[in-house]
Design goal:
This protein has 620 residues and is α/β, with parallel strands linked by helices. The chain has 19 helices and 27 strands. It has an 8-stranded antiparallel sheet with strand order 3-2-4-1-10-9-11-15, with helices on one face. A 7-stranded antiparallel sheet has the order 5-6-7-8-12-13-14. The radius of gyration is 26 Å and the shape is globular. The structure holds fructose -6-phosphate. The site of fructose -6-phosphate has 16 residues, from helix 9 and helix 16.
Length: 620
């Protein structure tokens, strides 16, 4: 979703701003802009485009240094269409300041009415322009005709944010102070990159890599006063606080495509390694269990857990569904899976022996964050299964498990999904070994997990075959994805991958549900992807496959052995390595990810930045 960058120092601000915005492109956006200020110019210069960062770069006069102070933004439209006027930065007052904003202001209409009554004129439909004028209004009042000071700027921002209801990450620059940035945060992340004689700001760490190796995460209700030689952090209730400086993790470093044509493809191919990273140091062979450093609960407390709630959105919700099967099967603990967007407003009766896991790649998904906060408020221990270190959800939860998958840039989640499943399997093993799961059974799970990176590597060998299948079906308008038990969520995830990057309508179902309605969709133009490996439900899925075939539907089958029955019935068969049923979702997802990727390519879609989607969904 929207991205923010900022620079103050002795170098050309645009150099960092453009690189930073390019690195934020993966989040999804539809317009972009920057504002800069130079000490020898009385005016803030703003350039905006309704389009890509590359267009913004061309729109800037090449080679001219426009200033050593600047802010930049990629916007994902919420209030008002994706136009140049609605793009950020927005100016406040009569261009006394310029401001970029991530998040959503819920009370912007009433604030706007008040400001209009005072004579402020609005040019855009955004909630952000309201903040810009609000800060400018306070700034003018504080000066009261006198000399402007930095304190006026700070107080104007503090007073304005105290009137906002909603979420914001804000970065403001003032015409009167050509080296000053003011950042403010509530619910929308901002990170400051600490340099020597220069400072960088961004909405996540990816723009900062290579520019700063020390960072400060701004917390909610903090305002940072940033100048080339200093950073001052003020908290709404605690006054001035010491900035907590962290080292920028090397996890964030890997942000190029390394010879792949798309981030998504690179990330699909990284899975043997990302799964290995999720496993590293967490398998305890001596005790036939898993170990985690950050759950912040004693084994006794964990033994007392009576129920687990797993929550998340999109792909992470699909991981939760697999987690439900895993934990119930290996640990026999009752599990409930909730969409975070529903959980946040529900009032489910839960007891204090219930713990809640929020599953999230980005750690910034607004609904997951709100659901976890609500459950924490009710007194439940909350945990995050999260990829991005230091993200809002990682900070808000009482404890958690990092995926260590490295940055996932492609909007369609691939490696984060399989890492989430790997972590959930270890979690199920851990809970199982605290309860009834025998030493031998625990060891078998560990052996399977240890083989997993190699098996995923083998699964990738289907790529060429998948390309041929994609060439055959890429013009279809509808797809069905069908599986049972552990592979029901796999089917949902396969369908989601296809629809989000190729824009083909796809539905995932438990295979047996077909006859209760969806089978009416089957015809010779609607391919069905069946996940039909060996296991307890193999025969059942085979019957469902026959039902589809009997109605003339083309079938692509994913199997894990030489299967003459399926070969006779299916139009295409993809073979994946054999694993225990609880690991099938990981291995079976590989051909499904590749199928979506190849189909999207053939349809000419922007695989890494699909239309209308954002990588981290920071609005409700
Ligand atoms: C799909 C996808 C989304 C995310 C969802 C939650 O490929 O990426 O459905 O899974 O927006 O995001 P996180 O996991 O960052 O909370």
């Amino acid at each position: 979703m929207c991205g923010i960058v900022g620079y103050t120092g002795n170098n050309d601000a645009c150099a960092f701003l453009i690189t930073g915005l390019q690195r934020l492109e993966y989040r999804g956006y539809d317009s972009a802009g920057i504002a800069t200020l130079s000490s020898d110019s009385p005016r803030i210069q703003t350039t905006k485009v309704a389009g890509r960062v590359a267009q913004l770069e061309s729109a800037l006069a090449a080679g001219t240094i426009r200033g050593r102070l600047g802010i930049g933004h990629t916007r994902w439209a919420t209030h008002g269409a994706a136009t140049e006027i609605n793009a950020h930065p927005h100016s406040g007052g009569r261009s006394v300041l310029s401001l970029v904003h991530n998040g959503v202001i819920e009370n912007y209409e009433s604030l706007k009415t008040d400001l209009q009554a005072k004579g402020f004129e609005f040019v855009s439909q955004t909630d952000t322009e309201v903040i810009a004028h609000l800060v400018a209004d306070h700034y003018a009042q504080l000066q009261a005709g006198g000399e402007p000071t930095v304190e006026h700027c700070v107080e104007a921002v503090q007073t304005a944010v105290s009137q906002l209801r909603g979420t914001y990450g804000l970065l403001v620059m003032f015409r009167d102070f050509p080296d000053l940035l003011i950042a403010a945060r509530c619910g929308s992340p901002l990170v400051i990159g600490v340099g020597k004689g220069e400072q960088f700001v961004a909405s996540d760490t990816s723009p900062l890599v290579g520019f700063a190796d020390r960072i400060v995460y701004l917390a909610d209700h903090q305002v940072a006063v940033i100048r080339p030689e200093s950073i001052q952090v003020l908290h709404r209730d605690q006054g001035r606080v010491r900035p907590d400086v962290h080292v920028l993790s090397s996890d964030s470093v890997d942000v190029n495509m390394e010879g792949f044509n798309h981030f998504m493809l690179k990330e699909i191919y990284e899975q043997p390694q990302s799964i290995q990273n999720a496993l590293r140091g967490r398998l305890d062979r001596d005790n036939a269990t898993a170990k985690f450093g950050g759950l912040n609960l004693t084994p006794q407390q964990l033994r007392g857990v009576q129920r687990i709630v797993l929550t998340g959105c999109g792909t992470s919700w699909h991981s939760a569904l697999v987690g439900e099967y895993l934990i119930e099967e290996l640990a026999r603990v009752p599990v409930e899976v909730e969409y975070a967007s529903e959980l946040r407003y529900r009032n489910p009766p839960t007891d204090h022996a219930t713990i809640v896991f929020g599953i999230t790649q980005s750690g910034e998904t607004a609904d997951t964050l709100a659901a976890l906060r609500e459950m924490k408020r009710k007194g439940h221990h909350t945990l995050a299964i999260c990829n991005v270190i230091g993200s809002s959800i990682a900070q808000a939860a009482d404890g958690g498990i990092y995926l260590h998958a490295g940055p996932e840039i492609g909007v369609a989640s691939t490696k984060a999904f399989t890492s989430q499943l790997t972590v959930l399997t270890m979690l199920a093993l851990y809970f199982g070994r605290l309860r009834h799961l025998s030493f031998e059974a625990g060891q078998r799970v560990i052996e399977q997990l240890e083989r997993l990176p190699h098996l995923v590597e083998q699964a990738l060998a289907c790529h060429d075959q998948v390309k041929e299948i994609a060439a055959h079906y890429h013009t279809a308008n509808n797809f069905l994805y069908l599986g049972r038990k552990f592979n029901f969520p796999t089917a949902l995830e396969g369908a989601l991958k296809l629809k989000e990057i190729s824009y083909i309508h796809a539905e995932g179902y438990p295979a047996a549900e077909m006859k209760h309605g969806p089978i009416a969709l089957v015809d010779e133009h609607t391919p069905s992807v069946f996940i039909v490996p060996q296991g307890t439900v193999y025969e059942k899925v085979l019957s469902n496959l026959q039902e589809v075939k009997a109605r003339g539907g083309p079938v692509i089958a994913i199997v894990d052995h030489d299967d003459p029955q399926v070969a006779r019935l299916a139009d295409n068969v993809i073979r994946i390595p054999q694993v225990e049923d609880f690991l099938q979702p990981i291995v079976a997802s590989i051909p499904l990810q590749l199928l979506s990727y190849e189909i999207a390519l053939l349809r000419g879609c922007d695989v890494d930045k699909p239309r209308n989607l954002a990588k981290s969904v920071t609005v409700e």
